[in-house]
Every structure is written in C-alpha cells, then in structure tokens.
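Entry:
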Amino acid sequence: MTGVTSVSEETDRCVSEEAAGGGSEEAARGGWARLDGSLLAVAVEVLRHGPLPRAELSRRLGLSPGSLTRLTRPLLDDGLLVEGGAELQRSTGRPSVPLDVRPTSARFVGVTITADTLYAVVTDLRAEVRGHAAVALPGRSPDEVVRAVAGVVDDLSRVHGPLAGVGVGIGGLVTEHRDVVVAPFLGWEGPVPLAAPLGEAIGVPVSVDNDVRALTAAEHWFGQGRGLHSFALVTIGADVGCGLVVHDRQVCGARGLGGAIGHQPLLAVAPGGPCDLGHPGCAQAVLGTGGLTAAAAAYLGSPVTHAELLDRAAAGAAGARTGLDDAARGLALLVTGVTALADPELVLISGEGARLLELARAAFDAESARHGRPGPAPVPVRGAPIGVVDRARGAAVVAVQDHVRGDAPVA
C-alpha cells in the first residue's frame, strides 16, 4: 500500500531509538495496565499536564508530599514516570525535579474514515504526530474498510515500529468503542462490529469512536480544553455535531447519542429547505454544507459551493454576506442552547464552522447577546480550525485513553 509519509527524519530517528530500548518500552506498556485509583490519577495528571514539579502535582491532586512520594515511587521504578530537569522552587530557591512521562515509550495509530479516503497518523503517548498517511478507500463494505485500515496501519508500523493501540474515528453512532450502529456516509446500518475484526487483522487493541467524540477527547486531554472542567466542541460541516465535557468527563449519553445536536430545531423553516431527514429548520438544515449552500443560492441567484460561498463573503459580496449572517444567527441559537444546558467554560467551533464564525462574527455576537441573560459574563466562543490530520489524531487519542485506563478491547 502506498501513501505513507514521514513527518521528519529526526522524529523517526527518535522513535527508532526508543524502539531499540526493547525492555523499557515493554515495561511501560505493562505498567499502565496495572494502574488504578490514585496511581492512575497521578500518572494521567502527569501525562496530560507534565512535566510537573512534585509540589504542583500535590496541589492539583490534593495529596500530601508524603502520599505523593509513596504513589510516585512505584511509577518511577516501573519506568512510567521519569524525572526531568531541575527547576527552582519559588519559595525556597532550592531545585525541584519535575516528573514527566516518556512520550515515545508507546506509539499509536489514529485513523479517520471518510466516504472515499482513509487518513491516518502515528502519534506518541502524548498525541504528538510522528507520521501520517492517506490512502483511497477501495470500497465501503465493512470487509473492504477493515482491509484498508489494516493495510495502512501495517505500512505505518513498518516505518515507526510496534504499536500499543489503534483508534478509529467514524461519522456515525458507535457503542462501547466497538460496534458501529449506523454510518450514513458508508451506507452502514448495523450494528457492524469493527473493533473486533480490526483487532484480529492488526494484532493490537483497536478502539472505535464517533469522530466528533474523538476530536473532543483530543481537545480535552491535549488541546484547548486541557485544564478545563467543562467545555463544548461544536463541529459544522456536512454534518453538525457536538462533543461535551462536564466535570472533566466526556458526556456520551445512555445510548451513545450525547451531543447529537444535528437535528436540534433552530427555526420554523430553514431558508434552504429541510434537511435530508425532512426536518424543517433543524441545525443540519440551517448550518450543514448542503443547507447553507442551498440558502445562499437563493440570495446569489445561482448555485454555489461551500468554499465559493465563504470566499465571496470574505470578498464582501452582499448576497454571500447575507446568507452567512443568517447562518451565524442560527449558530448563535445552537450555541445558546448548549451553553444554557451545560454552562461550559468554553465553546469551540470547529470544522467549516470555524470560518463561518470568523466571517460572520458580528451577526453571531449580536444574536447571542439578544438571547443572553444578565449576570455572569457570556461563555467564550472561539473558532478551532480542524483538518483531517486533527481528526485522525483525535482517533489516536481515543486509543491512548483506552490504553492508559486499561479500557482497550483485547486484540
């Protein structure tokens, strides 16, 4: 299979040197599987936020210095944590040795599946991208997808060394990181087992998740949501979705439908007509690529692609600006509903919606203010441009989380 691309020779060399260590890498992999309770909390805190001085780690976790020493000793002995360079403590001026993980001690592949292409990345334990690949999807049947994913994973592992896990992100409903209940763009109506056959083909644990939840996982542990107890990620493109973190945990819902806001009603009637399910004025009909371009065509007098619409709006074309402003007001209604329900510390707008927010920010802010309430400051809303590499990285983070928590399906 072709299409494997290294990020840099230096990065690959670093990974190869770690692989040559053999025993220490295997010890680190086994060590994570044995952790639970306070030991796991310490290790995950260092993974997400390290390197951390011991005093800062004690403060974050509410542990006494003696308790922290007792907990970190076996983690250091096992090679899961290492001591980094010394830093001066502000109070005494004495050196403090930060604790960190060895990011290159394990490698993961993340794959995001579109209707016609697989995008894959290799990451380290902290989700830094070490390599990437893109291959055409030969077909959309489950067997064809399994073979294609297994092929690209095999190619990447040959270049970057043994893997600790693989994550797959897919647009659809996924349950328990294993089975795809429905994936409209692939024509799947399941449940379709995906983790099990992939694990058998690849020989390492495989975790499957909805692609929006995977993106949310990446932002939660290693992105703009790191350090926040709550935030929302609203994705807008062909579909509309939402990932939600509350009390430092992602909300998935009883049936895996947490954040499924694509058909949330926004308007009595959408300018471009109903969505593909016949819902008038839902988020998909107002903000999705198809609905937005259909509405814009009425203003412009001719069909327009989504990219052309945004480019014309950026150039100041009146009809394009009007269409975008209408959509931004719909986005404000959607975000208002999310913030009223969950009261997050931050809302990120990703996908093609990030540029919509940038170009029609004034209309978005005005509509948000119209529906705001007196008292607390409004929730910050920021654009977060995200591409296919970011989506694949999100899938890798799902595999990282399952690996360190011991939740990965058995290969």
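The two ends are 23 Å apart (CA to CA).
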